[in-house]
Structure to design on (223 residues):
């Protein structure tokens, strides 16, 4: 829901969701933006099947004509990428949820989860290169990742994107950030901004979401 909230409130046009999983982020954008269409890119056949199954649910009747799922590897390059279903200079906004765990982290025993969660060398760079290739000039990219990935993301976005914003997400005001959302505009020359953080919970609020986080997670507010 936080990634979905990075898309402008009045968005219309074509959205690409890279690493879409079961489709939650793209579906949230489509539900909020009735003039938007989305292509969900997911490498895992299992998760792509979950996304397709979700579109058959009665509650998603209003989304199914505006979404499609493509099983493809976001890290492909050049002609192989285009043949896999990634058109050049096409999308009006791209959202991305790349694998974020370091290979040295505690490994998951399930190969399906490992492929979705573990980042190999240069993966972020390849994903951002794909995003830039498939979106039209002046369109936006939003990536959600761990704070440790900021340097790699900014390096990959350099000379491709401007008007970059970095939004830290903290569990509470006194705790370090656990995620960042990095957004940028393809071809812009505007300088980068470090914007006000999102605190998921108030300092003394227990497990209850903060007012802002509650509005974002329920689709009532954007980043």
């Amino acid at each position: 829901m936080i990634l979905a909230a990075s898309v402008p409130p009045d968005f219309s046009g074509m959205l690409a969701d890279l690493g879409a999983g079961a489709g939650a982020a793209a579906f949230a954008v489509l539900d909020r933006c009735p003039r938007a269409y989305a292509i969900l890119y997911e490498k895992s056949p299992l998760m792509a099947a979950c996304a397709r199954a979700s579109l058959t649910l009665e509650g998603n009747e209003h989304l199914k004509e505006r979404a499609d799922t493509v099983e493809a590897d976001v890290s492909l390059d050049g002609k192989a990428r285009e043949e896999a279903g990634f058109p050049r200079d096409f999308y009006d906004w791209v959202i991305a949820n790349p694998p974020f765990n370091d290979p040295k982290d505690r490994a998951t025993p399930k190969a399906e989860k490992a492929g979705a969660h573990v980042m190999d060398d240069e993966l972020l760079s390849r994903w951002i290169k794909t995003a830039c290739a498939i979106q039209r000039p002046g369109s936006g990219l939003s990536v959600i990742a761990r704070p440790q990935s900021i340097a790699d993301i900014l390096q990959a976005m350099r000379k491709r994107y401007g008007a970059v914003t970095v939004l830290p997400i903290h569990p509470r005001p006194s705790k370090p950030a656990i995620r960042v959302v990095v957004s940028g505009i393809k071809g812009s020359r505007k300088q980068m901004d470090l914007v006000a953080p999102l605190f998921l919970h108030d300092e003394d609020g227990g497990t209850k979401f903060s007012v802002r986080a509650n509005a974002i997670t329920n689709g009532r507010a954007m980043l």
In short: The longest helix spans residues 123-134.
